[in-house]
Every structure is written in structure tokens, then in C-alpha cells.
Amino acid sequence: MVAYPDDVLPPDERWDLVHYVQSLRRKEAQIGDILASDGHLPAPRFNGPLPRDPLDPAWERLESVWIPLSPLWPEPYPLPGVAVRALHNGQTLALLLQWRDETFEGAPVRVQDFQDAAALQFSLTGRTPFIGMGDPDNPVNVWQWKAGWQQDVDGERPDVDRAYASLHVDVYPEPAQHGLYRTAAAAGNLLASHGLKSPIEDANATGFGTIATQSSASQNVHGRGVWRDGFWSVVFLRELTSPDPQDVQFTPGRPVPLALAIWNGAQRDRNGRKVFSNWQQLLLAE
Ligand code: HEM
């Protein structure tokens, strides 16, 4: 851009120009102080109970790391990246993800509906295998937050009568018969369950096409997601150690490979249709 002689633009018009250029920056860049990812995600030590609320001002004291995302499927408006903050207090690890999403897509009620979601993928071997959900020698532990599960936890999960107000039901099986009709729920399949304790699914995979939810008793990842002003903010929380061999273990000072994926329900994202990151090294401060 050519330099203007001093007398062409008066000072206030120069500031107008500065603000106009700033307004061209990506919205995401306005999520607090942001550092471009260099492949490392630091988790400083925090004294006391960790902020469980995604909107807790305590998170603002931390710089976030901007992690670029790539679409796995051609999409009109793929999300370019996600801002991530991580903290631990020697007992528990907390990660906050924030990303731009103009619209809220919750529990899919109709067949054409898809929900917003976000996932963290941890390598269980410390190696960085194929980013596509590991391989048989390098299993991964996956934590997936789902907007529909968040609604369930918040007691706001919509059902078909929300989508079809004039819906008519002839007969509905007695609760005692539910096992006959709602077999997945009766078998304890979390995907079919209501009254969930956490909006986050704890699962494992050894390559794409193999993802499997851990049992209800093994679900030990907690968190909360809030959609506000066109942004999702989602906190994931888990103890640093777990008795479950399928779970990733965190030790301060020992890096853990981590990757991220985000689904935008408005773009009909589900399964392998998503945006994902490359491997990052999560490092808990000693
Ligand atoms: C090249 C990269 C990737 C490929 C090709 C891929 C492919 C797939 C495919 C085909 C599915 C559906 C089948 C299945 O359930 O396993 C799937 C589901 C899933 N993937 Fe991936 N994936 C990739 C990366 C990732 C990453 C980095 C994460 C986590 C950070 C992830 C998390 C998930 C989750 C949670 C599901 C279940 C989704 C749902 O229930 O809607 N994937 N992926």
C-alpha cells in the first residue's frame, strides 16, 4: 500500500482506515488473545478448582492457541480453525474450545437434521499414527461433545412433537414394554439413552469405521457447552489419571498427542463429514 503524504489523510480519518482494515480480519481472531499453533498446546498449572463453566472469566486470563482445521469433505463454508485453552491443577485437566458457528443445531429430531459437535482424539501410545482415528497398533481415546447431549443434560432435549406439532400418536407402549420397543436404550446404548449424566461421549477407535463407545460405567469425561453470539464455547474435564486402560493418562511434563474435530450441523456434518486438525502435543506444566 503506497504511503500517503501527511496532509492527505487527517489523523481521525487515518484511524477510520485502521479500524476498517481491522474489521476485515477474521471474526475468530477476536476470541481474546490468540497465538498461532506451533504444534504445541501448553496446559499451565492452575491453583484451586478449575473453571467448569465455558464462560467463566477465569479463562480470559489465559491466551488461547489457534489450531487450523481442514475439511474432510468438500463443504461450502468449512470452519478454518478453533481457539483452544488448556489448564490443569495436578488433579484434573480442563480444555476450552471456542469456534464460530452462526447457528445452533441441537439434537437431530428429523432425518434431515444434524447436530453441532466437537471431539478430542488422544493417542494411547504417545505416537502420532494416521490422523484418521488411529490404527490397530495405535488405538486412540476420543471424547465427543454433542449439542443434543448437552440439551439432554440441560433437560431441554426436543422430541418429534417439537418438529411436528400436529403429530398424532395412536398407542404408546407401557413403560414395562419399553425394552421390547426401545431395544437400544434397554441395552444401555448411550446414543439411545435419555437422562444423560454428561454431554460428552468417551469412546475408542483403531482407525475410522471402528469407533466404539465405552460402557456407561466407564464414561468419566465431563464438561459443558454454551452457544452464544454465534460462537460455541465447550469445556472438557477429566481426572489426569483413570483406572480404565482404554483411557488416555496425563502426566505433567510428558507430552500427549491430541487432535481435534468439529461438526457443523447446519452443513449436515456427521461421522466422517467434519473438519479436523493435525496432531498437536498437549503438554501439562510440572
Ligand atoms: C483423516 C481423518 C479422519 C477420517 C478419514 C475420519 C473418518 C471417519 C469415519 C468414516 C467415521 C464414521 C465411521 C465411524 O464411526 O468410525 C468417523 C466417525 C467419527 N470420527 Fe473420524 N475421521 C478422521 C479424523 C477424526 C478425528 C481427528 C477425530 C477426533 C478428534 C474423529 C472423531 C470421530 C468421531 C467422534 C466419530 C463418530 C461421529 C458421530 O458419531 O457422528 N475423527 N470418522
Describe this entry's structure for a reader:
With 286 residues, the chain is mainly beta. It has a single domain, classed as Immunoglobulin-like (Sandwich), CATH 2.60.40. The chain has 5 helices and 15 strands. The strands form 2 sheets. Strands 2, 4, 7, 8, 9, 10, 13, 14 and 15 form a 9-stranded mixed sheet that branches. Bound molecules: protoporphyrin IX containing FE. Protoporphyrin IX containing FE binds next to strand 7, strand 8 and strand 13.
Compact description:
About 10% of the residues lie in helices and about 30% in strands.
Question: How many individual β-strands?
Answer: 15
- Work out the strand percent: 25-35%
Please give the alpha-carbon distance between the first and last residues. Answer: 47 Å
Give the CATH architecture.
Sandwich
Topology as H/E string? HEEEEEEEEHHHHEEEEEEE
In total, how many domains does the architecture comprise?
A: 1
By DSSP (H or I, 4+ residues per run), the number of helices equals 5
The ligands bound in this entry are: protoporphyrin IX containing FE
Structural class: mainly beta
Percent in helix: 10-25%
Rounded Rg:
22 Å
Summed over residues and divided by their number, the pLDDT gives a mean of 90
